[in-house]
Structures are given as structure tokens and as C-alpha cells.
Amino acid sequence: MSDFAETTAELSRALGALQSAGDVEVCEDGERLAELAQFQCEVRQQGNATFVHLWSEERNLVRRVLRVAEEAAGRLVLEVQRFGKSKPGRLEFSSAAGRPAGRTSREKFRARFRRLLAEQFPDERVESLTSAPDLEHSFSGSYTRGVTRRGQRAWAVLGVSSAENASTIDAALTFGLLWLDWTRGHAQRRVVEGLRLILPEGSARVAAHRLQAIVAAANVELYELHETAWRLWRVDPRDAGNLMTWLTPRREVEETRAAAREVVERAKALAPGAIDAIVAPGTREVALRFRGLEFARWRGGQLHLGLSDERRAAQTKRRVTLGSLIKELNTFRHPLAADKNNPLYRAAAERWLESLALADITTIDARLNPQHVYPQVPALSGSGPDSAGAGRGVMDLLGVTRDGRLAVIELKASEDIHLAMQGMDYWLRVRWHLQQGDFSRYGYFSGVELQPKPPLLYLVAPGFRFHPATDTLLRYILPEVECVRVGLNEDWRRGLKVVFRQ
């Protein structure tokens, strides 16, 4: 506001109103400082600036207010500037009613986690501990990260509460490695020994599995936190890293395809080149997809139309037909569609990208054999139904080079911090099946003599959509995982073109 005196008065009134409503918590950049009642508080004008001053016997905090970022019932968030810091921060005042439940849970976990580290590693001092998100460095607020120190030697620490969902827990290694890399890069004269990764009881299997492909120099110690006893137990990745993974025999897949062939061909004829059909993993059902988006499913000899379970009932009421549904899709899910914001155009972007790669895999790399490309295999399991290992359940594409080397192909249509770790996870599983001789046993790559060499790993995304953290994460993956990054044209829906391959 141009009237700085008015701004100062409004902030004073807003803070007074919050205090009158009950206890108010003060947080800076996600870090809890104290209850507001523990501070003396002053909002003052100085020249053309407004300042908030909080002080007590233990703290003295002065921040210049840049703007009010958020004001709601029980909550006031200020964008502030700290003396000597160029990057703005966030100063937040919130009553119990205005406090997000997830953040409250994380704050309680962080407070207990600090005591746990002090008890479990009594010779080390907890130097820092925070769960504040830091988007610049890709640090998520779902995890508590810190550093313990003894003399000139330190450990990076990252922990996650059992209150988080399984997908967040499974992704902990990704964020742990990023935190380790940052702490080593800012260690100055200290030596950061490695990373202590602390996960809830019974949830370390995915991380243990992935650690098989992480370089020894990372020096990751894996622990499970038994919250009932509030004690840590060291986990040996060699004992805990075997995840369930299986292959569906190709004979079963081909039998299902054959049974649905007539229906599939009739649908394909309505939009040549736009429709493909895949056998849904672990089922005897065939999913029909329009540029990657499932619009019908064949099961038990019948074709069930619908873009999703939620829409099927509504579509049945208006007597949707196969022809009308495909016509609608061809209008809105077309590379040259006028409305790029239409839900049908934007939905399932990765599956659209997958369908294009599946149609001509040699665009990704001329070495790949177009006769042997399998979508969505094998079926996998992780720590839970919404875990990174189970939620997606399948890799994007499995292929082979013309000289018989397996290739894991992981696709992303948008920036995704999990690309490297997901690809590596699938690479480990494919290597295991290769070593067991499962591919020939279950009828994959018929007529191809597979090389015993480890698979290639292709990470494929539009050229400017690789997450900035990808390069950092790849440095921690074993050289045995031979990774090829393939950058595609931004307008890939109009046809795949490779803009770089490295």
C-alpha cells in the first residue's frame, strides 16, 4: 500500500484480533518459533517501510514487511525481509483453528525427533533440524531434515512420520540424497559422513531395494522408527530390499488379446492411428485407449464404455455410443485441438506420450527394436496401495535393442523429481528378472537372444521438463545403471522429435 501508516495500523489490528481469539503460534519459513504470547510485539513504521519486531529474553526478531501474503480466519502470513538476506521469507501467525492439521502433526514429530536423535546418538549434537519447505533446493516440508555433529564430523539426517502417506514415505530416499548433497556442498571444513534415513516401522522395503543401486560413497544408513517404543532399529538393505515383482506370461496376454480382437478392430477403424489396446496388468481385460486415454474396457466378452468409473453411470444415462464417444475424443483430444485447456486434451499426458513412443520406439533411439516393445510391465508392489512402487504399479515401456540388450524406458510429460529414482527402481526389477531367466520363460522377446549385460535406462521427457534435481540424483546412482536422457520437442503431441540425447 502507498499509505505506510495505514498499513502499520492494519497489521497491528490484525495481530490484536488474532491474539484475542486465543493462543497464536509464530512460524518463520515453516519453522515454529514460539507462541506469540511469549513475545513482546510491536508493528512500527520507519520511513517508507513497515517493520514487525518480536522480542523476548531468548529471541530478538526484526523483519521488514514486504506484503501481506495471506489473511484468513485465524491466520496471517507476511512476506518479510531479514536484514542481510536478499531472499524474502514468510512470517506466519496462526491460531489453533487456522493451523493446517498436517503441519501441526509435522511440528510435533519434529520436536520428538530432535529428542530421539539426542537419545540415540548421545555423542553427537543436533546442529539443525527443520521441516520448512525450500522450493529453491527441492526440499519438501513432508520430511524433517537436519544435521548432527561431533567435532568436525557430521551426518545428514532425514526422517518422515508414519502420518505421511505411503507414496511420501517411499520417496524419502530421493529427498534424503538431495539433502545429503546440499549438506556436503555447504560443509566448509567439516566432513559429512553420509545420510541417516529414518522411516516408519515396516516401511523401509522400497528404500532398501533402491539402495542396491546407490553408490557406496553416499554412505546411507537406513533405520526404522518404532514409534510405540520411540526407538530406532538399523535396517540392513541386503535383508530388507527384496520387493515382490512378477511377470504375466505372454501366452495369457495374447489369449486375452485374441478374444477381444474383433471388438478392438471395430473401434480402431473409427479413428485409424489414434486408438491402441493393451491388456491391463494382472487382468484378463483389454483397455482401449484414445491417444493414451482409456475410454473403454473389454471384459468377459462385453465392451464397457466410459472415460472413468465416475463417468460411466452418467454416460450410460445419455446412451453414449462407441461412435459418439470416439467423435468427442477426436475433437478435443487432438494434437491440433483449438481448446488446449479442455480436460480431454490435458488428461493422461504421460499415457499420450507413451502411445506415441509405443507406435515408433525408434524415434527414442534407433538402436531399439520396434518388434519387441511392451507397455506397462511388470506389475510391482511397494509399501502400500498408494506407494510409489504400487500406485503406478508398472513401468512405462520395456524394450530391447537390436543386438539384444534390454531397455527400461521411463516417460514423463512434465517436470517430475521422481523420474530418476522411479526409473532406477524399475531397472533393478528388470535386471533381477533377466538374471532369473524370466523373460524367455514367460514368452517375452520371442526369437531374441538377450544379452546378459544390465539393461539400459532411458529417461524421456520434453527437453525443458527435466527436473533440476535429476542431474544431482543421477550422480548417486551406480555407473552400472547406464542412463540415456532423451529430451523431446515441447509440442510432442504433434509428433515426437528428439532435441537431445545424452
Q: Brief overview, please?
A:
The chain is α+β, with helices and mostly antiparallel strands and 502 residues long.
Written account of the structure:
The protein has 502 residues and is of the alpha+beta class. The chain contains 14 helices and 25 strands. A seven-stranded antiparallel β-sheet has the order 2-1-7-6-5-4-3, covered by helices on one side. The chain has a six-stranded mixed β-sheet with strand order 8-9-10-11-12-13. Strands 19-21-22-23-24-25 form a six-stranded mixed β-sheet. A hairpin with a 2-residue loop joins strand 17 (293-299) and strand 18 (302-305). The longest helix has 20 residues, at 101-120.
| The CATH topology of the largest domain | Trna Endonuclease, Chain: A, domain 1
Strand-residue proportion: 25-35%
Name of the level-1 CATH class of the largest domain: Alpha Beta
What is the residue-averaged pLDDT?
88
DSSP strand count: 25
- Structural class call reads alpha+beta
Low-pLDDT sequence parts: 309-317, 381-392
CATH architecture of the largest domain: 3-Layer(aba) Sandwich
The number of helical segments is 14
Work out the count of structural domains: 4
Q: Which strand order does the major sheet show?
A: 2-1-7-6-5-4-3
